[in-house]
């Protein structure tokens, strides 16, 4: 029965790099770039529809993207520093972003900081701008996850489900080398979750009137809710894989969900209070 299920499994790509002469084209990088393009395109349409100026999103992307890449790599290196420092490791490999390894929390944090800096310089209100970006950023995260498929990384534990993912022995943990098993395609789960979350945010944004910043808070809640259960399926080696029974990224998701929930409530409360204040007639 297991062999039959394996025969129905999702195959992994046999390569993730192609060469145009001396220039390598890496699927991981291409997926990230495609995600950025989609996020900018969607964010631009939403920002202009909300009364923003055309070109603002592209301008602020010049701040957000490099900040996000640096933040994503920093988070990964700090939380998995044993991969790059210590006996037998070469610290210079911490700079090899093309091999994979971008922590989403660091990417979001510093990417948002880049947006804030750019928005301040252009005189753009930050929270409405972030609200316009939120659905597209979530979709971009889902697109970027396909880079993990090409790298055969960040998959889940073995499964007997028909959509199990084939992983080559070279990319498996030692305990599963040579075993007739397939694995949970956690990259696919997160990609589909991000797509569904993007559609949910777009639907809610059309049906309800949110205070500035509330859609960003919803984005954080949607993403982290999915990340908790997906993270608990994964078996990739991480440095902090058992903190009170959960991986570090699971605790991070829980904390950020709680913070976003509080922010959502506070923003709603502030908007209600401002709406109930009597307007002062100016002469």
Helices and strands in order:
Elements: H1 2-7, E1 17-20, E2 23-26, H2 27-49, H3 56-79, H4 104-122, H5 126-144, H6 146-151, E3 158-159, E4 182-183, H7 186-207, H8 214-231, H9 248-276
Antiparallel strand pairs: 1-2, 3-4
Helix pairs in contact: 2-3, 2-5, 3-4, 4-5, 5-7, 5-8, 7-8, 8-9
What does this structure look like?
59% of the residues lie in helices and 4% in strands. The chain is mainly α and 283 residues long. A hairpin with a 2-residue loop joins β1 (17-20) and β2. α2 (27-49) packs across α3. Mean pLDDT is 86; it is low at 1-5 and 278-283.
Low-confidence stretches: 1-5, 278-283
Give average pLDDT, whole number: 86
Main structural class: mainly alpha
* Element pattern in H and E: HEEHHHHHEEHHH
What multimeric state do the chains show? single chain
Number of contiguous helices: 9
Strand runs, count: 4
Share of helix, binned: 55-70%
Strand fraction equals under 5%
Largest sheet: 2 strands, antiparallel
Inertia-based shape: globular
Strand order across the largest sheet: 1-2
Integer-rounded radius of gyration: 21 Å
Question: What are its keywords?
Answer:
two-stranded antiparallel ribbon, 4 strands, disordered N terminus, 283 residues, globular, mainly alpha, two-stranded antiparallel sheet, single chain
Could you provide a short overview of the structure?
With 283 residues, the protein is mostly helical. The protein has helices at residues 2-7, 27-49, 56-79, 104-122, 126-144, 146-151, 186-207, 214-231, 248-276, and strands at residues 17-20, 23-26, 158-159, 182-183.
């Amino acid at each position: 029965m297991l062999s039959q299920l394996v025969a129905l499994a999702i195959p992994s790509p046999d390569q993730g790099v192609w060469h145009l002469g001396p220039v390598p084209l890496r699927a991981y990088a291409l997926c990230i770039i495609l995600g950025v393009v989609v996020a900018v395109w969607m964010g631009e349409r939403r920002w202009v529809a909300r009364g923003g100026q055309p070109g603002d999103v592209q301008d602020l992307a010049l701040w957000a993207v490099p900040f996000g890449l640096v933040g994503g790599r920093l988070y990964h290196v700090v939380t998995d520093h044993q991969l790059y420092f210590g006996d037998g490791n070469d610290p210079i490999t911490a700079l090899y972003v093309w091999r994979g390894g971008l922590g989403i929390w660091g990417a979001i944090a510093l990417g948002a900081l880049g947006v804030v800096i750019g928005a301040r310089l252009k005189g753009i209100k930050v929270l409405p701008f972030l609200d316009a970006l939120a659905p597209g950023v979530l979709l971009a995260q889902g697109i970027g996850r396909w880079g993990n498929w090409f790298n055969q990384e960040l998959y889940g534990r073995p499964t007997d489900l028909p959509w199990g993912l084939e992983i080559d022995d070279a990319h498996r943990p030692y305990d599963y080398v040579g075993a007739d098993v397939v694995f949970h395609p956690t990259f696919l789960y997160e990609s589909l979750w991000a797509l569904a979350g993007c559609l949910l945010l777009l639907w809610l944004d059309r049906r309800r009137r949110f205070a500035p910043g509330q859609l960003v808070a919803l984005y954080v809640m949607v993403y982290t809710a999915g990340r908790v259960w997906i993270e608990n399926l994964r078996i990739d080696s991480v440095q902090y894989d058992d903190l009170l029974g959960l991986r570090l990224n699971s605790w991070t998701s829980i904390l950020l969900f709680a913070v976003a929930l509080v922010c959502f409530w506070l923003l709603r409360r502030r908007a209600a209070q401002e709406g109930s204040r009597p307007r002062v007639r100016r002469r």
